[in-house]
Design brief:
Layout (H helix, E strand, L loop, with lengths): L2 H8 L5 H15 L4 H21 L10 H17 L4 H19 L8 H21 L1 H4 L24 H22 L2 H11 L1 H6 L4 H27 L9 H14 L4 H21 L4 H15 L1 H4 L1 H6 L6
Helix pairs in contact: 2-8, 3-8, 3-11, 3-12, 3-13, 4-5, 4-6, 4-11, 5-11, 8-11, 9-11, 12-13, 13-14
Length: about 325
Amino acid sequence: MDPRTSLLRAGRWHLWEPLLWLAAFAMPMLVPGHSLLVSEIAIVALFALSLDLILGYTGIVSLGHAAFFGIGAYAAALFAKMVMPDPLVGLLVAMGVATALGAVCSLTIMRGSDLTRLMVTLGVALILLELANKLDWLTGGADGLQGVIMGPVLGRFEFDLTGRTAAYYALVVCLLFFLLMRRLVASPFGATLMAIRDNRLRAMAIGIPVHARLAVIYTVAAGVAGVAGGLLAQTTGFASLDLFALDRSADLMLMLVIGGTGWLWGGIAGAIVFKLMHNVISSITPQYWTFWIGLFLVVLVVVGRDRLLRPWTWWGKGRAS
């Protein structure tokens, strides 16, 4: 198969994909009591998609991806509180701030091994966490940034206590960025990213500008993570220090372990499974829910994802890895 045909096939839609999105948009009406959970899953799925761009498609391991998530959340919350409460403008501000931070941090991943990148990315998140803690006059410190009131979406749809507007808002934004990222990874640019992931030295030998590609995709992933953080702050009306915490980045890695990396549906599948397990198990045993999720991960590794999640891997035609 020639490269052009391969890229066209990779970008082709399957019948089950629009059906799944239709089912997702039907959830707030079918289970109105769980609209807030639907919103949270959509936000976490978008966050997982942003990490998959650099981990699954480029091979960059990061333990500090929460830095962009947190900075996007605080940017959206501060903008709504101090400038204007329009959600869409605030989301653009969150994306812009996170993208700028990603562009700066992309300079730190050009050199070194995977272990070096792990420490550098983790260090950035810890620095931002401490800054948010010390600048309590601006961020609220350990108490978090409270009292964030958002205006209606498009001037018509008010955020309500049921969470239906928040659910549809998060789903629309998640779908929009999913389409953009799908187009990106199925383009020649995406093919060069996978070449870098598979063999960086060979990619350099055939003329791919590896450092420029790494900087661009890291910056793009940071912007998408900032959008996810902005969505969370807008739909909950709150931003806190735990947005920068290590466990948030670790949970993101677990989602990609569950769903698989290197195909965008893996992040969505992992987010759905992880959040549903978290919601169900924590309602049964609030103190020991992490034990059962850990046990599930052990079984997943021992048995194999292909056997436990066979429909997803079949739909993805072997793209999960």
